Amino acid sequence: MAWNEPGGGGRDPWGNQGDKGPPDLDEAFRKLKSQLTGMFGGGSGGRSGGDGGGSGGKVSAGLLGVGLLALVAIYGFFGLYQIDQGERGVVFRFGAVQQNIVMPGLHWNPPLIDRVNKVNVTQVRSKEHQALMLTEDENIVDVTMTVQYVVDDPIAFLVKVRNPEVSLDQAQESALRHVVGGSIMDRVITDGRAAIAIEVQERLQSYLNRYQTGILVSKVNIDESAPPSQVRDAFNDVQKAQEDEQRFINEANAYAESVIPTARGEAQKLIEQANAYRDQVVARAEGEAQRFEKLLAEYSLAKDVTRDRLYLDSIEAVLSNSSKIMVDVEGGNNLMVLPLDRFVQSGAAGAGGAATQDTVRSLADAVIREINNRVADGRGRDTR
């Protein structure tokens, strides 16, 4: 019978009468202990309370059992958790890390005993760093760098270092200053940025491995490297001058590449022409020598005829190459000039444009007649 039902004797929940004052706490704890003992095998405690007490103990024991089952179910429910595909779980048991890494899937760990921290190992994270740095040739450059990284070791990332990202900031600045400090300014701000990024990545990864941060650097980019803004205009002028210098050098090399083959071709042509002239002169000399030997044989057979023939051929060759002849008349003071070019032209026009040997002979006869006439005229003047 419940304590508040009719006939319950006005008892309160602790079994005390309504007119006997407040309940006794010691008595209440003893009854609760006896009920728990009855539930877990201590039946004597349940029987000592009489029939009415035994009935109430059974009801309380059933409610307590249901409550315990509910607590167990809730405890087990809160121990369930899921690890996504890109995550890894690190288990801390009573605050101590466990070396086994929880892989993706549905898992269970006892709450209040184990604590699971999830770490995303596939997400590519990035950190940017910008600073003024001194180069090897004592120039100042403004460098902006971006580091892309992933978590490679979840346990080291959570346990070994208190704040891995702060360590990453310090390590990337140290690596960048070391590499830039060992390079000259032109290499840092021009075509050497890619090589500098590779060197910084290698050095940065060695620092992070030494610190046991569990971070893997996937890419280092030198976004911008330039002189400070205070001297940027002057530096741009220097860069333009260097570009112009390189352009002039390239143009000079191109001109040299075009002129040198032409000069070599001209030189080879002159060499070929000289060789051809040499062969021509040698062949002509050999031919003249052979002709002279044949003339010598003919001269030994008929000296007068051969001599006259040679004389006439020589006179013909000389007169054919001269346009005027100056004749000094014997016994006179006059100098006679014969315009052979006009005689040849008139003779060639009469012969149809061809100056032959007959034309030369007729020209010689005309010359002789003219000489004789002038000589006769001179003698006649002397007689008078």
Report a brief summary of the structure.
The protein has 384 residues and is an alpha+beta fold.
Secondary structural class? alpha+beta
Q: Tell me what portion of residues adopts beta-strand conformation.
A: 15-25%
Q: Which of globular, elongated, flat, extended, rod-shaped describes the shape?
A: rod-shaped
Q: Count the E strands.
A: 10
How many helices?
11
**Alpha-carbon Rg, integer:** 64 Å
Could you estimate the helical fraction of the residues in percent? 55-70%
Largest sheet: 3 strands, antiparallel
Mean pLDDT: 78
Chain oligomer state: single chain
Order of helices and strands: HHHEEEEEEEHHHHEHHEEHH
What does this structure look like?
By secondary structure, the chain is an alpha+beta fold. It is 58% helix and 19% strand. A hairpin with a 5-residue loop joins strand 6 and strand 7 (140-151). The chain has helices at 25-39, 43-47, 50-78, 154-159, 164-181, 185-189, 193-211, 232-301, 303-320, 340-350, 357-383; strands at residues 80-83, 87-93, 96-102, 105-108, 114-120, 125-134, 140-151, 215-226, 324-328, 335-339. The strands form 4 sheets. Strands 3-2-5 form a 3-stranded antiparallel β-sheet. Strands 6-7-8 form a 3-stranded antiparallel β-sheet. Strands 1-4 form a two-stranded antiparallel ribbon.
